[in-house]
């Protein structure tokens, strides 16, 4: 497993490191004229509309006429990007509806790899395959030739492009964290929690002991950015909750939710809720509602990413409601969960990508070529640089290895963010790859984007977590393994079922046992059998 290197290198070198992972070649901006593709080649004489759905696309095109980067990219490839808006809260429902009505956009982001939906859409001809020959798009070919992605082809064909997040398993460590009110901890005399009882008591104190000093019962202990951040709270009791992975028990791999360890988990989660440690509204909140609630100053802790970008989102929400107190002065990062019985603190880990790009079967070969040209460019080291610095010659200059930022400043004399100058980066910046490891590079551009103190807080937290915490033992080959019954398990929603247990007044253990028994109707035992047979036959238990 590759370790993260922390030497003080220039950001240009850091960008090139990422480029070596993602890209196969470098392309200079002047190599392709407007109306011609990049490495996809050929003149793009016919202007094409390309419809796109992406998680942040609702923020991408507020004013097409003033977004110079959008105009530059559309001119470069002779296209017009047409947005079909989704959000983190509704994308699954919208895609299901659009797939049934034949209205899926040309390009869309989803997270269905190896699920029943994925194979069903291939079989039904709802999504199309990429061309067999990807040599005209070397950066795309590079992504699809990585060890973790080669096995995801179906009958030798690739039906998606995985969206790379980090270049190793370790850098995911800050993706599951608690950001807590340091000032509330100090006022209430609370030290960093270690045990389950420590966490329970701290969160209850945030909710019940008037930490904001207004004499009202109006504060919340723990809230969440999204539903995915709920179960990891109990990762200290059962580490595989952190990344929802299969676990080997008594010589057999099983999904984490089928483990007997869930009995203790459901009791603890019920207690956390009934004793007021958890946001009473958590079950009806939408993604990012928790960020807004934390910003309003009524929440003691939020379960979410403590990456530089995650902290920046919290900072933006906080700054809207708290003009006299800086977020960086009240924020403190702690592990998302308590110490395990074995004495370890466990941390989140995952495969190197999350979510994928898919292409509607209605996309013909001409349009597919244009889309792949665009993706090849978005995976190039040239674009990675633009993603951080903006437009060369306008927002930055390069002399040798020295990059000088020249972009506009705001009224406070601070450089404007790339997203404020070019909102289309809310789409293009992550459409082909998340590239989030660049956030952890110590650089001027990251200090501008995320704030110097918050960037340092996240970087130091990552170093400490990699050094001191244990990654959840995860068989990545098994996680990416396909079997017919395993793909059908995607119909199971353990988080939704855990929520029902937390809200109920029935015995939590009996209720969970009944829920898991019901999973048999969705093929649980058959999936376990198929997976373990495949592990033995393919030698995946390494």
Automatic annotation (TrEMBL):
PROSITE patterns: PROKAR_LIPOPROTEIN (PS51257)
Keywords for the protein's UniProt record, in alphabetical order: Cell membrane, Lipoprotein, Membrane, Palmitate, Signal
Gene3D superfamilies per UniProt: Periplasmic binding protein-like II (3.40.190.10)
PANTHER family associated with the record: ARABINOSE-BINDING PROTEIN-RELATED, POLYGALACTURONAN_RHAMNOGALACTURONAN-BINDING PROTEIN YTCQ
Name of the protein this chain belongs to: Aldouronate transport system substrate-binding protein
Lineage: Bacteria, Bacillati, Bacillota, Bacilli, Bacillales
């Amino acid at each position: 497993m590759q370790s993260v290197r922390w030497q003080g290198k220039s950001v240009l070198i850091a960008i090139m490191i990422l480029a070596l992972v993602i890209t196969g070649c470098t392309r200079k901006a002047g190599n392709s004229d407007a109306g011609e593709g990049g490495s996809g080649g050929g003149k793009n004489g016919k202007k094409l509309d390309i419809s796109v759905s992406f998680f942040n696309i609702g923020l991408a095109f507020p004013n097409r006429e003033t977004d110079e980067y959008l105009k530059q990219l559309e001119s470069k490839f002779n296209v017009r990007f047409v947005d079909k808006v989704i959000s983190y809260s509704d994308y699954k429902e919208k895609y299901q509806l659009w797939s049934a009505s034949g209205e899926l956009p040309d390009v869309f982001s989803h997270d269905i790899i190896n699920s029943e939906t994925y194979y069903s859409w291939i079989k039904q001809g709802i999504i199309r395959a990429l061309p067999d020959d990807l040599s005209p798009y070397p950066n795309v070919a590079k992504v699809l030739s990585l060890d973790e992605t080669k096995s995801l082809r179906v009958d030798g064909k690739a039906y998606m492009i995985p969206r790379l997040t980090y270049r190793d398993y370790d850098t995911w460590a800050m993706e599951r964290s608690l950001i807590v009110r340091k000032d509330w901890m100090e006022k209430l005399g609370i030290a960093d929690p270690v045990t389950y009882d420590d966490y329970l008591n701290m969160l209850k104190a945030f909710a019940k002991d008037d930490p904001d000093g207004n004499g009202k019962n109006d504060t919340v202990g723990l809230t969440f950015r999204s539903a995915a951040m709920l179960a990891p709270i109990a990762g200290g009791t059962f580490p595989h909750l952190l990344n929802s992975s299969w676990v080997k028990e008594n010589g057999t791999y099983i999904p984490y939710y089928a483990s007997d360890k869930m009995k203790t988990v459901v009791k603890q989660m019920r207690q956390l809720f009934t004793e007021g440690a958890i946001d009473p509204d958590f079950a009806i909140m939408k993604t990012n509602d928790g960020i807004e609630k934390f910003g309003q100053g009524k929440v003691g802790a939020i379960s979410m990413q403590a990456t530089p970008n995650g902290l920046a989102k919290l900072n933006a929400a906080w700054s809207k409601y708290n003009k006299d107190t800086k977020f960086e002065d009240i924020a403190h990062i702690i592990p998302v969960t308590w110490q395990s019985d074995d004495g370890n603190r466990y941390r989140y880990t995952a495969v190197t990508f999350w979510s994928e790009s898919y292409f509607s079967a209605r996309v013909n070969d001409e349009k597919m070529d244009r889309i792949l040209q665009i993706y090849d460019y978005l995976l190039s080291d040239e674009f990675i640089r633009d993603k951080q610095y903006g437009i060369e010659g306008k927002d930055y200059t390069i002399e040798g290895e020295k990059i000088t930022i020249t972009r506009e400043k705001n009224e406070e004399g601070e450089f404007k963010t790339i997203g404020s100058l070019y909102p289309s980066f809310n789409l293009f910046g992550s459409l082909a790859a998340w590239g989030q490891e660049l956030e952890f590079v110590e650089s001027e551009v990251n200090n501008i984007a995320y704030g110097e103190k918050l960037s340092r807080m996240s970087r130091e937290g990552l170093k400490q977590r990699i050094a001191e915490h244990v990654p959840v033992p995860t068989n990545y080959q098994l996680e990416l393994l396909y079997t017919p019954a395993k793909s059908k398990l995607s119909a199971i929603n353990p988080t939704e079922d855990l929520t029902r247990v937390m809200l109920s007044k029935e015995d939590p253990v009996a209720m969970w046992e009944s829920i898991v028994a019901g999973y048999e109707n969705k093929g649980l035992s058959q999936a376990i059998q198929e997976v373990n047979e495949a592990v033995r036959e393919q030698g995946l238990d390494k």
